[in-house]
Amino acid sequence: MRFVLASQSPARLAVLRSAGIEPSVVVSGVDEDAVAASLTDPAPEELVRALAAAKAEAVFETLAGTHDGSADLVIVGCDSMLSIGGNMVGKPITPEVARERWASMAGKSGELLTGHAIIRVVNGEKTKEASGTEGTVVRFGKPSQEDIEAYIASGEPLQVAGGFTLDGRGGWFVEGIDGDFSSVIGISLPLTRRLLTEVGVSVVDLWNRPAS
Questions:
Q1: What span, in angstroms and rounded, lies between the C-alpha atoms of 41 and 132?
Q2: C-beta contacts of 170-176 below 8 A and 24+ residues apart
């Protein structure tokens, strides 16, 4: 059985590899803004779950009818956003937005929400689906303006949810978390395991096999 990660995130890939899974990576190409716009006043958990489901579904459609799509596999889509100050924020993209984000986040706490969606495929047919959301409270430090400028200049915060990382340079500016570490990085191992169980897959069957 193959594990297909519907994400180009290096952080998610690294989490899975360190946990014993070597996934196939297929980028969904989903227009996240369009998906969000199609929802009517969604709750934060509903938003990230819908985005994750859209990514998994897009990859299923991409693989459908191909040799890869006829295999026995699970497709896992994820989406992360930071809920802070009553707002849901994604990737800053620009230095200006990242600077504004850090000015509002410093010294405060937010909840990093990661939506997960899994599609089980058997002989090319979609057989089961499961989804869920994991939330982890992140307590931000108070970096100096010079620190923030240096962090933004590194480029790291521009393409990650909330404008920070926990497993990179941004980790220097996080005081602590309450919840699941792997979820903050981008894919919750405990939640993914539970969702795999819902679709009839044991995570241990997806682990890399020792070389003989």
A1: 19
A2: 172/141, 172/143, 172/147, 173/140, 173/141, 173/143, 173/147, 174/138, 174/139, 174/140, 174/141, 175/139, 175/140, 175/141, 176/139
**Catalytic annotation on 41?**
no
Beta-ladder partners of 42 = none
Residue tagged active-site, from 41, 68, 79, 180? 79
Pick from 131, 81, 147: nearest CA to 111: 81
Which pLDDT tens digit goes with each residue over 145-175?
999 999 999 999 999 999 999 999 999 999 9
Stated pTM of the model: 0.92
44-56 residue pLDDT tens: 999 999 999 999 9
Half-sphere exposure at residue 130, Cβ-oriented, CA atoms within 13 angstroms:
14
Query: Would you say 151 and 169 are in contact if contact means Cβ atoms under 8 Å apart?
Result: yes
The string of pLDDT tens digits covering residues 104-138 is 999 999 999 999 999 999 988 999 999 999 999 99
Buried b / exposed e along 126-159 (16+ C-beta atoms within 10 A): eeebbbbbbbbebebeebeeebbeebbeeebbee
